[in-house]
Write a structure and sequence with these properties.
By secondary structure, the chain is α+β, with helices and mostly antiparallel strands. 47% of the residues lie in helices and 18% in strands. It has eight helices and 13 strands. It has helices spanning 2-34, 127-168, 186-235, 242-270, 282-292, 313-330, 373-378, 386-396; strands at residues 40-41, 48-52, 58-62, 83-88, 98-105, 112-119, 278-281, 298-303, 308-311, 334-342, 345-352, 400-404, 411-416. It has a six-stranded mixed sheet with strand order 1-3-2-6-5-4, with helices on one face. It has a five-stranded mixed sheet with strand order 8-10-11-13-12. Strands 7-9 form a two-stranded antiparallel sheet. 23% of the residues are buried.
Length: 426
């Protein structure tokens, strides 16, 4: 804006000064036609005038401004023109560069010349104007900075309020949420995202508390049972069947060992400790595991060749074993294991012919330490961690493990997409 003002002011000032020079030269030429020119004369303020004869001798000039010993310029209008203009930058007086117009005047002894000159207007026009514009520009900048500071301060005030509220939220006071502004902008979306994150953290904390409580209870039960049996035997040592007592205590220790082993497995899965990924043939994996272990129920495989996935072989074996153990506990006489490929996705199904799982309990059975009444009756020593471990292994392979509808019994379906690289998600 300042540049435009300077350009406009300089153009206007230049046109004005050149107009004055032209007018002064024309008046002087008129006076010369009426008579002879004096040695010195007063002209228009700011305009230097000179009269030069045929011999390029200065006849007259503006008093105190134009030099009397040499012409203001050396150019001469052509024979076909009455006047010409030039920019002259020779040291003339106190001005370095001048805009000069030369008029040809007819005289009986030869043409004379009238030179009218004005200083060339500098880019800043005048010191007063540049100072004024600089002051106005600084004032506008200061006002803009003040406005920007006020706007930013008002905009960031809700952010600071959100920061202060987040700083007060701890694990013991996790139920709080940040205030969501009324306006619909990025700050509102930030507050909503923060609240959504806090919701997820609360859910994770609740699951952690529930898991800790359940783990403590399940760990305490076999320890308490073994302690009670030992204490009872010590009260009446002569009347106790010590081999039977030892077998009972050993059963409690085996259950305790199973729980600890599963807890360590879950901890490793949560930490995503991973071996090098390899290509695993699911059909071959099922064949090897079925041949390696003896089952109390009939296992019927339905295996499609060439169904491979990328992942950790040992964890996939653990997933299959957990599904087979669960199916064996609930099956009446038969368990079907199917390996196939659907639209490029590797699918493993384990179906038993038991009573199945009610639809409302299909997510419950995958929760840690969750055991249905039928499961407790069929396997009192179970840990309630087999299916959660299997689902976590499926998730780390980029897949899913769900219970789907079947004509009879429970149908567990594992799906692993073809584009998974075998590495756990970060």
């Amino acid at each position: 804006m300042t540049t435009l003002i300077l350009v406009e002011a300089r153009g206007s000032e230049t046109d004005s000064s050149r107009g004055e020079a032209n007018a002064a030269a024309l008046r002087l030429s008129y006076e010369l036609r009426r008579g002879s020119a004096p040695d010195r004369f007063d002209g228009v303020p700011g305009v230097m005038l000179q009269v030069v004869d045929v011999k390029r001798t200065v006849i007259a000039g503006t008093s105190g401004r134009a030099p009397a010993d040499r012409p203001l310029a050396r150019f001469v209008p052509s024979q076909t023109r009455v006047y010409a203009t030039r920019k002259v930058c020779s040291p003339v007086g106190r001005h370095r560069c001048l805009w000069v117009i030369g008029f040809r005047i007819f005289r009986p002894g030869g043409d004379w010349l009238i030179y009218a000159a004005v200083p060339i207007i500098p880019w800043y026009v005048s010191p007063g104007l540049i100072i004024f514009l600089a002051g106005v520009s600084l004032l506008v900048i200061l006002l803009g900075c003040l406005r920007a500071w006020t706007t930013v301060d008002q905009t960031l005030a809700p952010v600071d309020a959100i920061r202060a509220e987040l700083a007060e939220i701890t694990a013991h006071r996790s139920g709080r949420r940040v205030t969501v502004p009324e306006n619909r902008d990025e700050i509102r979306r930030l507050a909503e995202a923060a609240n959504a994150t806090l919701d997820r953290l609360d859910s994770a904390l609740e699951r952690q508390r529930s898991f800790t409580s359940d783990a403590s209870h399940d760990l305490r039960s076999p320890i308490a049972a073994a302690r009670a049996q030992i204490e009872e035997a010590l009260l009446f040592p002569d009347d106790v069947d010590w081999p039977q007592t030892a077998r009972n205590v050993l059963q409690s220790l085996e259950r305790l060992q199973a729980i600890v082993t599963d807890l360590l497995q879950l901890a490793r899965l949560d930490a995503a400790a991973w071996q090098d990924a390899e290509t695993v043939d699911l059909g071959a994996l099922v064949t090897i595991e079925l041949a390696r272990s003896d089952r109390t129920k009939r296992i019927v495989p339905h295996l499609q060749e060439g169904v491979t996935v990328r992942g950790d072989r040992l964890r996939l074996v653990r997933l299959l074993t957990n599904l087979l153990d669960n199916a064996e506990r609930h099956a009446e006489s038969r368990v079907d294991v199917t390996v196939s490929r659907e639209d490029g996705t590797a699918v493993l199904e384990v179906v038993d012919d038991g009573v199945g799982v009610a639809e409302e309990n299909r997510d419950l059975v995958f929760q840690r330490f969750a055991r249905l009444q039928d499961s407790k009756a069929r396997d009192p020593g179970g840990t309630g961690l087999g299916l959660p471990i299997a689902r976590e292994i499926a998730r780390l392979h980029g897949g899913s493990l769900t219970i789907e509808d079947s004509e009879r019994g429970a149908r567990f379906v594992l799906r692993i997409p073809p584009d998974h690289d075998g590495r756990p998600p970060r």
